[in-house]
Each structure stands twice: as C-alpha cells, then as structure tokens.
# Entry
Amino acid sequence: FKATDFNDASGGPLYLQLHRRIAEAIISGRLKPGDSLPPEREMAAQTGLSRVTIRKGIEALVASGQLVQRRGSGTFVAPKVERLEQALSLLTSFTEDMARRGRQVESRWLARGLHAPAPEEVMALGLGAGDRVARLERVRSSDGVPLAIERASLPSAILPDPEVVETSLYGVLEARGLRPVRAVQRISATNPNAKDAELLGVGAAVAALRIERMSYLGTGQVVEFTRSIYRGDAYDFAVELKLAP
Ligand code: 16G
# Structure
C-alpha cells in the first residue's frame, strides 16, 4: 500500500479505506493465507496514515477472522482451514477421528487436575458430598491448526489421576475398562469469547459451535461432562436420518 491509495476526501473514513484495501487484497489473492502484514509503524510510514487508523482498520478484519494476530509475532492473513466432516452418530474421540483421517493430533493443555466441583459439575456428574472432579482443559489441534477447545469434567472415581492423560482421554479410559459406550450431545451456535477466540486463532465475531457431551458407561454411570467450542469454519457435522416410525 502507498500513500496515494488513500483519499482523504471522497473515500470515506481512512480506517475503512484501509480495511477495504486489505480485504480486497485477501480476496484477490495478492495477500495469501499465512502472509504477514508489515508492522504497524512500517504501514504508517508507507501509507501516511496514523498508527491509530492502521490499528482500527485492522481490528475489524481480526474480529471477522480474516486476519489473525499472534502476540509478539505480528498480524497474518488467516490460514485456510480444510473443512472436516464429522459423523454425529458415532461415539469417537478426537484422537480417533484424526487418526482415521491420517492426521496428527496436538493438544495444548490449559488445565489438568483434581478440584472441588462447581455446582454445575455436581449436578451433571451426580457427585456426592466431598467428591472431587478431574478437569481436563485443552486446545485440540491437528496438523498445526487449532480446531476446538475442550473442557472435560470427570468424577475423580473415574479418573483419580488426570495428569496421566497425555494425548487421549478415551485411550486412558479404554485401558481401564471405563470407555464410555453411550453419549448424549447438544450442539448450539455461538461466538467464542475473546479468550477462546484467541486460543483458536480466530476472530471473536466468527461463528463457532458449542458442544456439550455427557457420556456414560454401560451401567449408566456418568463418565464425562464436556463443554467444547468448535470452530465453525472447520467442521461440518453430518448424520443419517431415518423415517420417523
Ligand atoms: C471428543 C469428544 C470429547 C472427548 C474427547 C476425548 C466432544 C464434542 N467430543 O473430542 O467429549 O472428551 O473426544 O478425546 O466433546 P481424546 O481421547 O482424544 O482425548
């Protein structure tokens, strides 16, 4: 961009002109997924716009997910994510889903430990007085792209040692004969909050899916109560429907 790109008089507010220019460059492919934008002060020098105007012009593109900002390393054109089709009728784990697609799994731990349960967890897990809860909170990525944030709560009777879970929770449960065999899931539309948007590397104005899963052993005992935020631009959930009886 150069100073002559921006017209004070007729083109509307300068930050919107910048916003439009960047959006056009992304659509036309002149800026490609993963490309970095020059630092704010460099853009200001190139365009003659103030740093405040530059920041404002970029802000809305970050909120809409077209640009991503990584603390300390700058502003980038959002990487293109490949959409994944996820069957809704099978009780699988994230690790299994990705392995089936031949993809690598990475988990970034946000929290993993035993806690006194919150009222919501007591109710969901049917905990007794004095029972503890194992909490596993992680950003789940595949091939370097964050796809979901999962916050799982399990009765400590099921998982007394949450720190043993390194990669697959269902893997650990399976080895102990505690793999859930049934689950109920609820999916609803949401926008991620600012913190979750940053963890997922998306803008806070993008669409996301909130998924709650309650899973059970064959005996009916609750195994997990998991609340997740899945990226709306990365997932298609698909299910086969049958004629109602
Ligand atoms: C899935 C489940 C989650 C479960 C996790 C275990 C949803 C929508 N999905 O992602 O409830 O805790 O698998 O995965 O909640 P893991 O065995 O790879 O740790």
Observations:
- Residues 93-95, 150, 152, 168-171, 211, 213, 224, 226, 228 surround 16G (CB under 6 Å).
- The chain has a mean pLDDT of 93.
